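=== Given protein ===
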Amino acid sequence: MARIIDGEQNNLIGGIVHEYRKKRKMSQRALSEKLELLGVYICRGSVSRIEDYSRTVTDIELFALIKVLQIPPEEITERILEKIN
């Protein structure tokens, strides 16, 4: 299967997730627990791997992360576009 993202990073939002999690004064475990309440199961270790760009993120997980961390969707879009351009 061809990969869209080439290189060592497996997602484009790890830094944003880390930044907003810290801004919300939330631990990785707390984030994991809040995601679980939405039916999205990302363990604490997987949150860590998302933040260090070593784990991919599905669209459903992305939506849940945006919702729980209250990230403005337009900011995600702008910052991702900056990375790929």
Remarks:
- The CA atoms of residues 9 and 84 lie 12 Å apart.
- Residues 14-84 form a domain with the 434 Repressor (Amino-terminal Domain) fold (CATH 1.10.260.40).
